[in-house]
Amino acid sequence: MQLQFLGTGAGQPSKARNVSSLVLKLLDEINEIWMFDCGEGTQNRILETTIRPRKIRKIFITHLHGDHIFGLPGFYPLDHFKLMKSKQILKYMDRSVLKVLS
């Protein structure tokens, strides 16, 4: 199990610190990655790491502030469109997030 911070900034992304997002790598345990929050630019941060987007199986959103959700649409081009459209990957968040994304 490994925890990797993708962003720890608040409100505005910067070159040094992206907005809120972190991943819990459970690759040895269950071969999955879980993401907590998905602020703007998270998809770019992921592409700068060794994280494979297809391994992200669950996304947990703590609350509906933009700095925690504006990165979700960026996952559409990263082959998560089918998962997000089926809402399987997003089932661990407040249902109001799904309304925002619809």
UniProtKB/TrEMBL annotation:
**Pfam families, per this entry?**
Anti-Pycsar_Apyc1
Q: Does the keyword Hydrolase apply?
A: yes
Q: Which InterPro entries match?
A: RibonucZ/Hydroxyglut_hydro
Q: Does the keyword Nuclease apply?
A: yes
Q: Which SUPFAM superfamilies match?
A: Metallo-hydrolase/oxidoreductase
Q: Which domain of life is it from?
A: Bacteria
| Single GO molecular function | 3'-tRNA processing endoribonuclease activity
Full protein name:
Putative ribonuclease Z
Originating organism? Streptococcus constellatus subsp. pharyngis SK1060 = CCUG 46377
